[in-house]
Design a protein that fits this description.
The complex is a heterodimer of chains A (about 475) and B (about 600). Chain A is of the alpha/beta class and about 475 residues long. Chain A contains 14 helices and twelve strands. Chain A has one domain (about 25-225, about 275-460): Alkaline Phosphatase, subunit A (3-Layer(aba) Sandwich), CATH 3.40.720.
């Protein structure tokens, strides 16, 4: 009856679009308005091409089951804390890396592709990274009332938003990818198509003050034009022209009503970019790499094709965004996460295999974010919402085969990074440091970094050595 | 529509069009303020006649002061999933409150779960007779979609169905990630929403809490009590979301929906993580309603259609400190059901519920940015229906739909007023406005392409945060004005063109307005089940001189008489450019253009 499967497989959001909305109930930080002033300041057109690809694992990946301690003592702590959620030590995939403190680690058994890339030096992990306004050293500081804490800790809507805005003290509509695009978009010769391209529709990460994402799908050439009318007896060319003109007239009219005006602008932008995009994509030769059927792989295939069309599109800098949902594993964690991690691992490997075919693997850096990691302890079926967790960064530019940030101890009792009995870890690396490294690699100057990441100076002095070192 | 009402319409059109020659066309779209808006606006009117004084209600909203066609259409677009011209006309014969009372009195329409079951049985029997494999037969996801369309296209209790759809976007469960395997559960959940649409919010909250679809979706089914020796703690998922999304939200609210502020001017959180942990203890011990053991796997489809039951041994014992100083006592013996009842009372009586739910429902039905005063009036109705009852949905619905902010036609010309119609209501409006029909009387529609490209169908949100969130602000003039527009969260280059192309499929390419799925081999291409629009009246207008009448007709039916001169001129020019012998394409092009026009898509 198909019921067997109810709690096994599955993976949320075939349609993506889990990016969360936002409010500006609180005033924006003062220096954000500076971004507007920079707009129009022409950057020197660079000779190189660079792309950032963000995969949002929506729902909160239980990432202490994605990257695990492998040494006997640390594994014993892991197993005791995670109880029925622990993955057997013998199943972990070896990672040939020893941390400065002598610890060793294993990858989730379903992430063979990721392990291969790690071993090849093309992939790294960032450990115990999370949303922070300022450093929180331990649980005493957390409970002191003296530290600024992110709004809505452990809540999906706030945390998924803060990973995209990098401003945990308020609810913002503008994302750090959007603010970055506001500054660097002039590097592209074509301003007709947004440098921020989304496979998952509207999202906060790519929304800037002057830049909005351009949404594409993984079908056809990424965007669907309005179908032609061809079954009428009179000249269908004439009928189509009449219609196109009417649509254009309605979209470009200046409406007094702000809702109509917003909709008209969106419609106009969608229509305007259409043909250029379709033509550019249709000229990209097919890849030999075989992409899996899962939509994440198909999304990354479309990204690879779009990157392949960068010259026709007039692009020097691009960001790509996509969501894969289904990570909120309060239930059936082990089986569901195993499935999803395999999907992610295969998709990343396929993506870079395809980019190698066209020699662009060093120009593209892929990174994962997620709402939060999950409680180390079990609820009997899965785990609940927590805070700091582990992320993946991949690409030819990555100083791979390393784990950046401090992988925390996972025992509960006496662990001063843990803020309650459930095993919620305080992040020891801020999302800002993670993002700063990506932004600097992308071409943002150290002096502009605080415009994109307003809290960065609480963690890092721009202009100094690399924030974490995984790209620089 | 029959010939008689069509004639009536012609008369009305004649009257309306007659005016055009004398008056500026804008008068058509600037509807006069309709009397009748005052009866809920705190307006006290006393009249006296030979029998003495009358109440304001009877005076202002009484028969004889009839709403006009545009105002009727506008009302029906807020209160239903679409109406044809006949219905709009009939509405002009009665007051809004009278119509609402009639709707309240109508019996529930078809049982969606039963329809889904009957369809499964029909498929089984037919499959057996036609040489198919009966072992392949089970309730399919698209059977439930078909049942939903059957309800939407045939049942008279249209207000109930509109409210249920709104509730389904607040109390979100979804086919994703796994309930698509048990469509009977989704059907049963929607039945539950329909049953509670005119009921009391407290009962709705309880039925949602105990529903196995919610138990699966927010994982409080088979949620065991704490066991510290195993480092095992109660699942916090439902505990968090029932507060954040279903009842009170993140911050303390005034009755008008504005945030309360502390002495430093900061908003006051309604709960913290400790509160979540306490509520999580409350929602332990529930298992499937047909299970005899806690933790037992579901036994079949029906496990997902009966309310969950409590196994007290698996319920966290002891006190639970909830909100506003209330503590659940240490019950001995353990009584999980009583604990849940206490917790739901604690939430239901929280002063946030009125303004929180009022804003969400107003955003679904009327406008994206209700004023605090509007929210406050609906909160008052939530808090007290006039007879001392809290949570009376009928009172809330009347307060929303009869409010001056919903009814006053001046809002139509307010540059900051309006809401983007959500995609599914555009689809239902097209089908209902033009009386979509099939010869077989069925409405088989899985909405697969629609869902893929437009990101919406009932009970298919990508997360518990719905297809879009109440506080979404698209950049541009809406964000600049610090206003909200939830539906824009699923409006982008993919969905804009996806919607235009689905409309193209339905109107321009074929005559079939629903995505037909054959249920078994013997039914393939059963043209009796194709769903077509009834455009006879529009096609009967066939002179070029009648283009204006066609446009006005669509203006009334689809745009509630709010079409701007700009759109009217663009349409007229486009239609006049089409060769004279192609009236049908004029009609179809007109509908297509109207339905992608900002005038239509922004409901005001």
């Amino acid at each position: 009856m198909g019921l067997k499967n109810i709690s096994r497989r599955k993976f949320l959001a075939q349609t993506g679009c889990a990016a969360m909305g936002s409010t500006t109930l609180f005033s924006s930080l003062a220096n954000l308005s500076l971004v507007n002033k920079l707009i129009g300041t022409a950057s020197t057109p660079p000779s190189d091409y660079k792309a950032l690809v963000c995969i949002l694992l929506a729902g909160g990946n239980d990432s202490f089951n994605m990257l695990m301690p492998h040494g006997n003592d640390e594994y014993a702590d892991y197993a005791a804390t995670r109880s029925d959620l622990a993955i057997p030590q013998g199943d972990l995939l070896n990672l040939n890396y020893t941390a400065p403190n002598g610890k060793i680690f294993g990858a989730h058994p379903s992430m063979g592709g990721v392990q291969q890339m790690f071993e090849a030096g093309e992939l790294a992990y960032i450990s115990n990274v999370g949303t922070l306004i300022e450093p929180i050293a331990n649980s005493t500081e957390y409970f002191s009332g003296l530290k600024n804490l992110p709004l809505g800790l452990f809540s999906h809507s706030d945390q998924i938003q803060q990973w995209q805005t990098a401003i945990p003290q308020s609810r913002e509509a503008i994302g750090w990818g959007g603010r970055m695009a506001d500054i660097v978009k002039t590097m592209n010769t074509n301003q007709g198509i947004s440098m921020n391209i989304s496979l998952s529709g509207r999202n906060v990460f790519q929304s800037g003050n002057t830049v909005l994402e351009y949404s594409i799908s993984n079908q056809g050439n990424g965007v669907e034009g309005i179908e032609k009318i061809n079954q009428w007896k009179s000249d269908s060319g004439l009928i189509n022209n009449i219609r196109t003109e009417a649509v254009s007239d309605m979209a470009t009219h200046m409406y007094a009503n702000i809702f109509k005006q917003t909709l008209g602008e969106l419609t106009d932008q969608s229509m305007e970019s259409l043909e250029v995009f379709q033509n550019a994509l249709s000229s990209v030769p097919p890849f030999a790499t075989n992409f899996s059927d899962h939509y994440l792989s198909q999304n990354l295939k479309m990204v690879a094709r779009t990157i392949g069309a960068k010259d026709d599109l007039g692009m020097k800098r691009q960001t790509f965004f996509m969501t894969i949902g289904g990570w909120d594993h309060h239930n059936e964690l082990l089986a569901n996460q195993e499935f999803l991690l395999a999907v992610v691992s295969n998709a990343i490997k396929e993506f870079f295999d395809a980019l190698k075919e066209v020699g662009l693997e060093n120009d593209v850096t892929l990174f994962t974010v997620s709402d939060f990691a999950r409680t180390l302890t079990s609820n009997g079926k899965g785990s609940d919402h927590a805070w700091g967790g582990n992320s993946i960064v991949a690409g030819g530019a990555v100083n791979g085969k390393k784990i950046y940030g401090d992988y925390p101890d996972l025992y509960l009792s006496g662990n001063d990074l843990i803020i309650n009995g459930r095993g919620n870890l305080i992040p020891t690396t801020s999302a800002d440091e993670y993002f700063a490294e990506l932004a600097l690699w992308f071409g943002v100057s150290p002096s502009d970094l605080h415009l994109i990441l307003p809290n960065i100076t609480n963690f890092y002095s721009p202009g100094g050595s690399a924030p974490l070192g995984f790209l620089l | 529509m029959n010939k008689r009402t069509f004639t009536n319409f012609k008369l009305i059109c004649f009257f309306v069009l007659g005016l055009i020659s004398f008056l500026p066309i804008t008068l058509l779209s600037q509807n006069p303020v309709i009397l009748g808006s005052g009866n809920t606006g705190g307006m006290n009117v006393t009249t006296s006649d030979s029998q003495g004084s009358n109440t304001g209600d009877q005076t202002i909203d009484g028969l004889g002061l009839l709403p006009n066609m545009s105002a009727s259409s506008r009302f029906l677009q807020q209160a239903t999933l679409g109406a044809d011209l006949e219905t709009i006309e009939a509405m002009t014969d009665k007051s809004y409150s009278q119509w609402i009372e009639e709707q309240f009195a109508l019996p529930r329409g078809l049982d969606i779960e039963q329809y889904t079951k009957d369809l499964t049985e029909f498929v089984l029997d037919s499959s057996y007779s036609n040489g198919g494999d009966p072992n392949n037969v089970r309730p399919r996801l698209y059977y439930w979609h078909t049942a939903w369309w059957q309800y939407t296209m045939t049942e008279a209790d249209v207000l109930r169905n509109r409210i249920a759809l709104a509730l389904s976007e607040i109390f979100v469960v979804s086919e994703l990630p796994e309930l698509d395997d048990v469509p009977l559960s989704l059907a049963n959940y929607y039945d539950m929403l329909l049953d509670n649409s005119f009921g009391n919010f407290r009962q709705l909250l309880e039925d949602v809490t105990f529903h196995p679809a919610m138990g699966v979706y927010l994982t409080h089914v088979n949620n065991p009590k704490s066991d510290t020796s195993l480092n095992r703690f109660p699942d916090e998922n439902y505990a968090r979301e029932v507060m954040q999304l279903f009842t009170i939200g993140l911050y303390e609210l005034n009755d008008d929906g504005t945030q309360k502020l502390d002495s430093l001017g900061k908003p006051i959180p309604t709960y913290d993580n400790d509160d979540i942990a306490e509520f999580a203890k409350v929602f332990t011990g529930l298992t499937y309603g047909d299970a005899f053991l806690f933790g037992q796997d579901p036994q079949g489809h029906l496990s997902f259609t009966v309310p969950m039951i409590m196994k007290d041994f698996w319920h966290n014992p002891g006190q639970k400190a909830l909100l506003n100083g209330f503590t659940i006592p240490n019950r001995n013996p353990i009584d999980g059901i009583a604990d849940i009842s206490d917790a739901l009372d604690n939430l239901f009586n929280h002063p946030n519920v009125g303004p929180f739910i009022a804003r969400k429902l107003i955003q679904r039905l009327v406008t994206s940015n209700p004023t605090p005063a509007y929210i406050g009036r609906v909160t008052n109705a939530f808090n007290n229906n006039g007879s001392g009852v809290r949570g009376d949905m009928k009172a809330v619905i009347k307060a929303i739909l009869l409010d001056e902010e919903a009814r006053d036609c001046a809002m139509v010309d307010d540059p900051f007023a309006g809401m983007l119609r959500e995609p599914i209501t555009r689809y239902t409006q097209l089908c209902r406005a033009f009386n979509a029909f099939s010869n077989a009387g069925t409405f088989r529609n899985d909405m697969d392409d629609f869902h893929k490209l437009v990101f919406q169908r009932p009970l298919a949100s990508p997360s518990v945060f719905n297809f879009f969130q109440p506080d979404y602000q698209p950049i541009g003039p809406i964000d600049d004005a610090d206003m909200f527009a939830p539906e824009f969260q699923i409006t982008n280059s993919v969905t804009i063109l996806g919607y235009a192309n689905r409309l193209h499929d339905w109107i321009m390419k074929t005559n079939q307005v629903m995505e037909y799925r054959d249920f078994f081999s013997g039914e393939q291409n059963d043209s009796d089940r194709y769903v077509n629009l009834e455009l006879t009246d529009e096609l009967n207008l066939e002179e070029v001189s009648e283009i204006g009448e066609l446009i006005e007709r669509l203006n009334i039916i689809l745009v509630a008489g709010q079409m701007t001169d700009t759109t009217r001129n663009i349409l007229t020019q486009a239609l006049e450019s089409i060769p004279e012998d192609e009236w049908e394409i004029r009609v179809r092009m007109a509908i297509w253009l109207v339905m992608i026009s900002p005038d239509y898509l922004i409901l005001r």
